[in-house]
Amino acid sequence: MDEERALYIVRAGEAGAIERVLRDYSDKHRATFKFESTDEDKRKKLCEGIFKVLLKDIPTTCQVSCLEVLRILSRDKKVLVPVTTKENMQILLRLAKLNESDDSLEKVSEFPVIVESLKCLCNIVFNSQMAQQLSLELNLAAKLCNLLRKCKDRKFINDIKCFDLRLLFLLSLLHTDIRSQLRYELQGLPLLTQILESAFSIKWTDEYESAIDHNGPPLSPQETDCAIEALKALFNVTVDSWKVHKESDSHQFRVMAAVLRHCLLIVGPTEDKTEELHSNAVNLLSNVPVSCLDVLICPLTHEETAQEATTLDELPSDKTAEKETVLKNSTMVYNGMNMEAIHVLLNFMEKRIDKGSSYREGLTPVLSLLTECSRAHRNIRKFLKDQVLPPLRDVTNRPEVGSTVRNKLVRLMTHVDLGVKQIAAEFLFVLCKERVDSLLKYTGYGNAAGLLAARGLLAGGRGDNWYSEDEDTDTEEYKNAKPNINLITGHLEEPMPNPIDEMTEEQKEYEAMKLVNMLDKLSREELLKPMGLKPDGTITPLEEALNQYSVIEETSSDTD
Fold it and tell me: Which GO BP terms, alphabetically (predicted)?
């Protein structure tokens, strides 16, 4: 009934009546996302009628009402099939100021029309394959970049930027060709990076360092939304950028990484928005070539170094709270480097672990990022080692029992999700410089067996990557307890009585044969398969392993 009345007025009424009826329709269906199939034809005709009205010279307020209803109707994919034409797309492009190459955004009264037009385009492009093809034909990505350049330094038109960026994200998500066009032809990487700089109001103190005001106000909701959309679009643009081929690429990625470092050190209007902002920053950092991630840490200035050295001495003995604050800040400094961004990433990772769900989507990106940073940058690895795997003192509990970051990561090493299990184990392995003996000290053999089997390191040794040769130092507590630590569980156990000490030799032989027969039965019924280690450290059926060792022995005898 609503569609019939609205359609009648749209076809025959004047602008004022059209605006009123469409405003009523919009207010009533603002939260409608599922539509009755019985009224499908009426909605199609209403869409066609609205496009015809938009061709006329009508007031801005009437245009906004038309576009609001069109946005609501464009949530229905079936309605879009007959109305998604090149002519209708061009109407929306004109209203969104995407056709005029020289037209500046000076008329504030037109901003609501531009925003609603962009919202309509977002829905239509997302829901219609025909619209996606027309976007390529109309070169929509280039038009969106041109609109961004008009408003990148204009803070009072954040809504326009936000939906322009959202549409750019959708296009680059749905079309791989557009990603390449944005990356190279349209210079999307520097353009989107500049949008982020503008949203964060960055002031550079050095080539890759920005001023951070920890006491400054949080980002506004509009700035946060703009930044999130820009981060998502940048992710698509850089999704294949694993290697840097030119010096200019390296510089641009370092600038982007420096902007992302700034992003990690600021907060949004709410805790949820801050987490969403940081989550998208983590995803984008995963696309940055690892050689460019060194800008996440930066040397302390002379002033910061002097302040760090003198602040504790200057504080009176009764200023306990102030001293604790100074000590807390000093934990973000390692070897003269500011580690704030890495500390934020570590806290972000721990929060994602504590959530206890969606590990593959929410946790693996930050774990993978920290792993690659640790593998490539020594200072980052050593800082994370101090934070995650500090020197062992209390070994009375199993490595997976407790509330420390180490305990939480060790628990993930036996997670049911293979991807989560592998990346958690890999992170700890890299922090241990890919040395098996060091990893087992912190995790126990049982928790590490999966990683070691996959890497062919069950017999010990180390991984393929080279690390510095500085040695780990064990605490006195660990050295004293080491002889009594169970290597499988990784913790100190009280000596257990040997159950066979009180058996006679005949009883021992009987129990041994009983065990042999049970294993033989399980093997013959293929419920259990005896395995052995090959010379390269990987697992294989026992017979095959024995055969390989026999061949090695024969070869050695022939050589002798």
Answer: G protein-coupled receptor signaling pathway; sensory perception of smell
